[in-house]
Model the fold of this input.
Amino acid sequence: MQINFKEAADFLRENDCYHILTHASPDGDTIGSGFGLCAILRKMGKKANVYCADELPRRYDFIYEGYEPMDFELKTVVAVDVADPKLLGKSFAHYADKVALCIDHHISNTGYAKRTLVEPDAAAACQVIFKLMSSQKLVECDENIAKCLYTGIATDTGCFKFDSCGPETHFAAAELMKFDIGAGKINRRMFDQKSRARIAVEQHVLGSMEYYFDERCSVAAVSLDDMHKTGLPADEFEGIAGLTTVLETVEVGVFIRQKEEHKFKASLRSTGDIDVSAICSKFGGGGHVKAAGCTFETSIEDAKTQIVKAVGEALGEKA
Amino acid sequence: MQINFKEAADFLRENDCYHILTHASPDGDTIGSGFGLCAILRKMGKKANVYCADELPRRYDFIYEGYEPMDFELKTVVAVDVADPKLLGKSFAHYADKVALCIDHHISNTGYAKRTLVEPDAAAACQVIFKLMSSQKLVECDENIAKCLYTGIATDTGCFKFDSCGPETHFAAAELMKFDIGAGKINRRMFDQKSRARIAVEQHVLGSMEYYFDERCSVAAVSLDDMHKTGLPADEFEGIAGLTTVLETVEVGVFIRQKEEHKFKASLRSTGDIDVSAICSKFGGGGHVKAAGCTFETSIEDAKTQIVKAVGEALGEKA
Done:
């Protein structure tokens, strides 16, 4: 059942003993939403804890390091930024049909929860929680809540860079920055600082980029052999497909990564009008207009040839 | 003479026939301020043109491509984002003592203009112009004005990332984004897209980085010989010193670039508490706590040795 802000606020006021669930492979928005909502509920005098199926990345420790779980018996399950119960993670599957309230910003939310508060126009789940807190006067904001919600909004918008960021996003950030949250330091940590392994991965991908069709298409490919030879760690490839569109002329970027002996995953990114989900659907894949993927069971060279040909057709070029 | 927003608004209302001057080596903030203020003045029924001593970079063409200079005799000179008359550029030196109004956000503004409206807490000159326009009701904002002012604010804050960005910065952005300015597209162009030459420069600098003191200090050096061999273009090095602090452990980043046969310029960046202007002052240089520079007339190896030793002392390490 879709509910509105008032109904969500009434629900939170009437219930107690919350387990707040983030999605697995947690990012800044789900972590900020989880600990932000937890701080709000505790300030309301409720008992609340945050749970995630996966370990929380160390880079978000400034959000969770002051947190201590409370001792109580679960009565109410709330999920934040979780569009589909599958995203809770395998070890949290038992929660799937017990979610009493889901707060989210994904238009793709499956409606699995008993109550869903979803704002598809919001740039982040943290923006929805900010609106819930302030419009319904749940509590007065404070430094800790502001730090959590700001981090989620900043990380889910690429620091206010993406199309998803709108006037309401900036209004929320303005209100949250009135507290002493050290936003500049948070942003430096979220966006500018990298591990040595990540720098090496980016160097490798940028260095091996090939360009086609007057540099309108770029292709980077990383094989298992490359990873073995260079020692590039598999867990440092998150979001790396975005690097394929750094060159200013590129309209379609392709990142191919070998998963198994004859299995390759291609991730496509579009910077303009080309619908990459249409390209990927030719190979049994799919996704969004600007970001999509597909899988090839062949050689890396053949995968590259096939995908470049399809991109060329989309660009109106002869491959 | 320092003036306030009301006095600046009165001045703009009472005068006409404006030359608006940006600083030389123009950036997004001075260009956005120049064309934004020009659009405001024209909307007020005034005659106004924008001038810059240097050619405007093509990456800002979405700001100035619809602009046509008007034909009129100069009566009033206004400078925007110009903290010191030297920054007008050599060919504009004749304007230096004729600036009737300067609108700026640099605390270091020399007060060279007859009237100065400076807000040192503002993240960008465009933020000051936004406040002037809206608080003094000079004109109703529109898409063109919003596009100019948003671009200046976004570029001068690293897309709302830096410490300089505060609640007022986000409030301004929120108001400006109510117009159909395509902020996501602007940001992609300003922050994500790079030329092939720039990518090559970044690859070279990251690839040649050396680390000292448990990776608390990084040093990258580019000689004239490197530039000659690799074909790296000199005009793609703007802001490259920022790359020296990408590794998460680095507290002081050093970028050394050869300028002439025995002349090297070192640019230092600090990510924490170390005052790099104090380090640079040992070598006759200076700057700010977090960004400073100095010059060496020696060999590149000796320059590196001297600066690493000084950084080591600042870090409390033995070089």
About this structure: The interface with chain B takes residues 158-171, 173-175, 177-178, 183-185, 187-189, 191-196, 199, 203, 206-207, 215, 245-248, 271 of chain A (CB under 8 Å). The first strand of chain A starts at residue 18 and ends at 21. The longest helix of chain A spans residues 28-43.
